[in-house]
Amino acid sequence: MRILMVASECFPLIKTGGLADVVGALPLALGKEGADVTVFLPGFPAVLKGLSGKKTIKEITSLAGGPAKLISGKTDRGLSVIALDSPHLFSFDGNPYQTKTGEDRPDNAIKFAAFSKLAADLATGKLGPKAFNILHAHDWQAGLAPVYLNLAEANVKSVLTIHNLAFQGLFPYSILPKIGIADRHYTNDGLEYWDQVSFLKGGIIYSDHTTTVSPSYALEIQSDAGGMGFGGLLKSRQQSLSGILNGIDLEVWNPETDPAIAASFSATSPNGKAKNKTALQKKMGLRVSGSTPLFCVISRLTTQKGLDILGDLTDHIVLSGGQLALLGSGDSAIENKFRDAAKKHPTEVAVQIGYDEPLAHLIQAGSDAIFIPSRFEPCGLTQLCAMRYGTVPIAGRVGGLNDTIIDASPAALAKSAATGLLFYDITAHNLSATIDRAFSLYKTPKTWSEIRQNCLSHPVGWRRSAKAYLDLYADLLEI
Ligand code: ADP
Predict the structure, then answer these.
(1) Predicted TM-score of the model (pTM)
(2) Of 56, 192, 442, 465, which has the fewest beta carbons less than 10 angstroms from its beta carbon?
(3) Measured distance CA(474)–CA(319) in Å, rounded
C-alpha cells in the first residue's frame, strides 16, 4: 500500500507543535507494519537542509508565479520525503505561518493551495513517480489536497486528519480564482464558511474519511460547545469521522538513551530520575532539594492550554512547598505572569521563555509532575512524553488527555492503575484543589512512586494506532 502523507511540518525537519511530532513518527510506525510511506512537505530551508541523498525528481516552470522543483530525500531516521522547493513560496526561516510580529503571512492561502494542488498531482501519478493508493492530509495547510484530488476524479482515496479544529484556514472569497477553484464550490456544502473560504472545511467535505487524534475529541467536535462552528457539519459526517490516538516516537523519547538528560533510567531501573531532578534544579537556578515536589510546564502559553489560570496559582504552589519549572512561549500576558512569579520566588519558580528541545527533555526527566490544564486538547503529546519519563500529568479531563490518563481516584488507586490527576471544568478553584490533591499524594511516597511507576510502564508508542490507520486505509480501499 503506497501512502502519501501531506503536511506542513515534520519532526525533526520543521516543528511548531504536535503536528510535526505525528508526521515525523506515524510514517515510521506505518513503515514497520509494512506500508510504503512518503511524506510531502513544503521546501522550507530547514527541510531542504535536513534531507540527505537529495535528487530532483521534477521541474515545474511555473507554480503560483514562480519556478518549483520536487526534491526527494531522506531524513536521518530513514523517512522518505518529497519537498516542494519553490523559493518564492517557502524560502524563509522562522514560523511557517506567521511573521515575527505574530500576523498571519499574507500569502498563506496561495502557497498552501499550490502545495496541496501538487500533493494531489503527486498522488495521482501525474508528476512522474508512481501513483499512491492513499493521500493522507493533515490540518488546514493540506486541507485542499483532498479537494483537488476529488475534483480530478482520481482513483486515490483521501483521509484528512484534524490535529486542532481551532485552526481552520480561513481566507477571503477573493482568493478562489487565484487557487483554481470554481465558484460553484463556494457553497454551504462546499468550501464556504460564514462568507469566507475554509481550507479545513474543504478537506472535511471532500476527503473520503476524516480522523482526529483521539476518540474523546472526535465526540467533542460534533457538539456546539466543542465544534468551533463545525459541530453540525462534523455530526452530519459522523459515519466518516473517527478518533485515533496519537503516540510518541519511542526512540526520540527514550530515557534509557536520551543524550539531553543527566542520567538514564527506565521502568525497571527508575533511580536515575532523582539525578535528573538535581540537574534540572541546578540548570534552571532552583534550590536543590530532592524532597520538594517539582512541577513543570512545557507548552505553548495560551488560554487553550489553561495556563492563564495556572499563572495565578504560582504563589499557591510555592506556599504549599512546591517548585515550578516552566518552558514555553505564547501570549505575552501569560508569559508576564510567569516572569513575575519567577522574580517573586527566584529559587522556587524558574521560567524560560522560548522553544528549546533538549531542555524539554531534561525538564520531563527531572520533574515530578507536569501541568496540562487544557480547556480543550485534541490529543496532547506532552502527557505521553511525561509518562514515558515518569512525570505525573495533572491535566484537564478533555480530549486526548481524558483518553490517555487514568485519574488517581480511590478506585484507580485501589487497583494500582492511576497514571495522573484529571479535573473537570478548567477554573482556578478546580486546578487549585487538584494541586492540593497532588501534594497530598506526593506526601505518601509509596503511592506517588506507584503512580510514577504506572506512568513509566504505560504504552505510549504508535504501534496500536498505526494498525488502526492501516485498517482505515484498507477499509477505504476495500481490501
Ligand atoms: P500542541 O497543541 O502545541 O501541538 P502537543 O502536546 O500536541 O501540543 O505537542 C506539543 C509538543 O511540542 C510536545 O512535543 C512538547 O514537548 C513540545 N513543546 C511545546 N512547547 C515547547 C517548548 N517551548 N520547547 C520545546 N518543546 C516544546
Answers:
(1) 0.93
(2) 56
(3) 55
Residue 427 Cα distances to 316, 331, 413, 424, 436, angstroms: 15, 19, 25, 9, 14
Is residue 241 assigned to a domain? yes
Range of the domain at 407: 272-457
Domain with residue 57: its CATH number is: 3.40.50.2000
Strands 369-372 and 294-301: parallel
Alpha carbon distance 20, 143 (integer Å): 16
DSSP H or E run through 53? strand 52-63
Kindly give the distance from the C-alpha atom of residue 298 to the centroid of ligand 1, in angstroms, as a whole number. Answer: 6
CB 20 near ligand 1, within 6 Å:
no
Q: Give the distance (Å) from ligand 1 centre to CA of residue 189.
A: 34
Indicate whether 358 and 234 sit together in one domain. Answer: no
Assess whether the previous peptide bond of 129 is cis (omega < 30° from 0). Answer: no
Give yes or no for a contact between 157 and 133, defined as CB atoms under 8 angstroms apart.
yes
Distance 371 CA to ligand 1 centre (A): 13
Instruction: Kindly report, residue by residue over 163-212, the tens digit of the pLDDT.
Output: 999 999 999 999 999 999 999 999 999 999 999 999 999 999 999 999 99
